[in-house]
Amino acid sequence: MRFSILPLLTARTDADVLACWELTAFFLGEASADVLDVDEQQAKAWYIRRIVDESEQAAYEDEDETAIGEMLEHIKGGLRQRAREHRELLGDHYPFSLNNDGRLVRKNRDQLTSISLCYLALQFFRALSAGYIEILGNNRAAIEVETRQWRSAFADLFEYIAGYAVAGDTNGAPYPTGSSRSAGRLFALLTVMCAKIGAGRVLPLKYWNTVAAETNDGRVDCLVHVGGPGMPGPAYLTLIGATVQRDNIDAKIMGPERLHFFAQFFQQQPGAFRGALVIHRDHHQLTNDKCVRLNCSMYSYLDVLTGIGKIRPNRFIRQMDAAARHLLHEIRSLELFHDEEVHGHELV
After folding, report:
1. How far is CA 173 from the centre of its chain?
2. Nearest to 304 by CA among 174, 102, 177, 160
3. How large is the average pLDDT for residues 179-185?
4. How far apart are CA 242 and CA 303, in angstroms?
5. Considering the chain, what is the average pLDDT of its residues?
6. N or C: which terminus of the chain has fewer CB atoms within 10 Å of its end residue's CB?
7. Closest-CA residue to 38 (of 54, 17, 66)
8. What tens digit of pLDDT does each residue of 66-90 get?
């Protein structure tokens, strides 16, 4: 799947635009912030309207070269600052280094972790969702099929990312339910979890009611166990709803009804239940207010980066390794079309 990054129409330097820079650096190997195409006139108009003091806007309108130069410097400086912030959040997992001259350089393959790969997938999804990526080709039907497949693969991966984000934030152990496709598989997963944490007892499968048996994953995308012997505070289990959708997010909020539903899978609960909603987008106050009313924690984009940045390789990380490798099969054919040349990547 060949794609290009569309010109910037504003001088924004948010996470979506950073994703465009990072993807370009990933495929080129390294890139300065001025590598991105900019519609100078539209971006200049945005810059004057949003950034320049109102008393000076008329003068900037008359000084085209000065205004464009300052606008471009604003973009470059903002992107470098944003990259430093993400590097701080992700630590060694950040897949790039930032040179003193402001160039973003892709790390060597052996320096990239599964968290690095998941971050790159997250950034590609952000840029795609924000409309900055154009999939190239003449067969629009084939392009739509490939795009849907990629979105579906990323949605599956995001359930793992969500679990590791909450686990990193709470110093817990994640138990993804994404691999569960039957009641029997869910029973086995919960049984193993109870055995590992030394608490709780799963209700025998033959006593599960019809609704419970047909959910396959218990209506939960991941479980994170926190606490236990030698750990401060009471042990508890966080039930996570994860979504990459912009609509119908409420269905993923883990409120009291969802916690009560999940409790029926146990003869004895392995600890108190808590709920968490994890979204790929930036903080959304309306959704957060709904979560507060239902006593459900919410993790948005920066919370996700903070959480996965705290993850260190351990026996649980292998689950994300498998998910990341699966996603790489989906992006094996991705190629960036830039400056009239095609650029692939060297990860697979």
Report:
1. 19
2. 160
3. 84
4. 13
5. 88
6. C
7. 17
8. 999 999 999 999 999 999 999 999 9
Amino acid at 258: R
| Token pair for 242 | 């994860």
What tokens were used for 270?
Answer: 């392995």
CA distance 106 to 61: 38
User: 84: which 2 tokens?
Assistant: 């430093």
294 in Cβ contact with 255 (< 8 Å): yes
Q: How far is CA 209 from CA 182, 183, 256, in A?
A: 14, 11, 20
Structure tokens belonging to residue 27: 């495929």
Q: Distance between CA 116 and CA 262 in Å, rounded?
A: 32
